[in-house]
């Protein structure tokens, strides 16, 4: 049996009320060290409130929060030195240069000046050429790169990325994905919120779904896609079929009203769609086009938020 490891983050009954409005309802969440966890949910679900509570930007109403086993009520500052946050909003002093603002950040986290680390982060985020520019002279995308550099320069062990690639170009998205994977492989724990589900699909080991302040589920991404996902085979015939072909009946496929397309939904424990296709060819049906489509995280999330998963657990 493996040794129990101390979670990177442990939330128990975390609640937040803004006046009469409850933004977080007793959230329990454990993040394992070294994992990339994507917290997904619609606008206003409570993602930023959760992250803000851990980072000390939001005052929780109830519950406990532990970072690497240390209770933030008992020590609100020490454990937070191990945390980095990429906030949604750009928040730096426009009068410092890029390098200066990173040096200040190192000092703020009680670290000695480390120019090599600054260079490393700037290179990883493709910002090296702007090292001596004033931050106010950066473009929007470059500002976002700097925001990420600032969150990482003190080598945090737990990093929150709150919509890190909102409104940025494809190149930064790719750079960031590569860098996030690299630091995760070196042991950094990442909690990510994103509305780009492709981003969660690319990066996350595990996914949590939050809605209206309630954590609905947490699950390994691959298992979630297997459990709720489906594969769809759509066959278009060159000539309309008057009735469902025999093979389609055997596989419980469906035929469109105009007889032109046959659709087969393949789920776990179903016969593979390749078998149906082979039967259709063997029966000499006039197949013009074949298309397959696998559920993406986006499809799964929509189903779960609608409260009617495409397949029961
Ligand atoms: N300072 C505040 N005062 C009152 N209500 C607030 C405050 N901050 C957040 N809220 C409310 O709390 C709820 C959760 O907001 P939060 O910013 O955590 O959502 P989110 O999941 O991060 O959304 P988004 O995806 O849009 O960033 C929202 O209904 C929001 O209006």
TrEMBL record:
<keyword id="KW-0547">Nucleotide-binding</keyword>
<dbReference type="Pfam" id="PF00005">
    <property type="entry name" value="ABC_tran"/>
</dbReference>
<dbReference type="InterPro" id="IPR027417">
    <property type="entry name" value="P-loop_NTPase"/>
</dbReference>
<dbReference type="InterPro" id="IPR017871">
    <property type="entry name" value="ABC_transporter-like_CS"/>
</dbReference>
<dbReference type="InterPro" id="IPR003593">
    <property type="entry name" value="AAA+_ATPase"/>
</dbReference>
<dbReference type="GO" id="GO:0016887">
    <property type="term" value="F:ATP hydrolysis activity"/>
</dbReference>
<dbReference type="GO" id="GO:0005524">
    <property type="term" value="F:ATP binding"/>
</dbReference>
<keyword id="KW-0067">ATP-binding</keyword>
<protein>
    <submittedName>
        <fullName>ABC transporter ATP-binding protein</fullName>
    </submittedName>
</protein>
<keyword id="KW-0813">Transport</keyword>
<dbReference type="InterPro" id="IPR050763">
    <property type="entry name" value="ABC_transporter_ATP-binding"/>
</dbReference>
<dbReference type="InterPro" id="IPR003439">
    <property type="entry name" value="ABC_transporter-like_ATP-bd"/>
</dbReference>
<feature type="domain" description="ABC transporter">
    <location>
        <begin position="9"/>
        <end position="237"/>
    </location>
</feature>
């Amino acid at each position: 049996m493996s040794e129990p490891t101390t979670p990177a983050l442990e939330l128990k009954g975390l609640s937040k009320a803004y006046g009469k409005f409850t933004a977080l309802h007793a959230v329990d969440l454990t993040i394992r060290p070294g994992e990339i966890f994507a917290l997904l949910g619609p606008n206003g679900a409570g993602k930023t409130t959760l992250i803000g509570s851990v980072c000390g930007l939001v005052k929780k109403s109830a519950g406990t929060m532990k970072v690497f086993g240390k209770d933030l009520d008992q020590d609100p500052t020490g454990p937070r030195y191990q945390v980095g946050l990429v906030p949604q909003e750009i928040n730096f002093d426009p009068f410092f240069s890029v390098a200066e603002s990173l040096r200040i950040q190192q000092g703020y986290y009680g670290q000695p000046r480390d120019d090599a680390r600054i260079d490393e982060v700037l290179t990883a985020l493709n910002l090296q050429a702007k090292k001596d520019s004033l931050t106010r002279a950066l473009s929007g995308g470059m500002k976002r790169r700097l925001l990420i550099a600032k969150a990482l320069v003190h080598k945090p062990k737990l990093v929150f990325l709150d919509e890190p690639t909102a409104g940025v170009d494809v190149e930064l998205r790719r750079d960031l994905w590569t860098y996030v994977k690299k630091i995760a492989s070196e042991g950094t724990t990442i909690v990510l919120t994103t509305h780009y589900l492709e981003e969660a699909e690319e990066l996350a080991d595990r996914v949590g779904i939050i809605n209206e302040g309630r954590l609905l589920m947490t699950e390994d991404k691959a298992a979630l896609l297997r459990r709720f996902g489906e594969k769809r085979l759509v066959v278009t015939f060159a000539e309309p079929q008057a009735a469902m072909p025999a093979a389609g009946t055997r596989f419980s496929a469906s035929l469109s009203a105009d007889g032109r397309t046959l659709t087969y939904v393949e789920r776990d424990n179903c016969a593979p769609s390749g078998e149906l296709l082979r039967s259709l060819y063997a029966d000499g049906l006039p197949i013009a086009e074949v298309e397959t489509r696998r559920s993406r995280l986006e499809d799964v999330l929509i189903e779960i938020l609608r409260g009617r998963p495409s397949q029961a657990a």
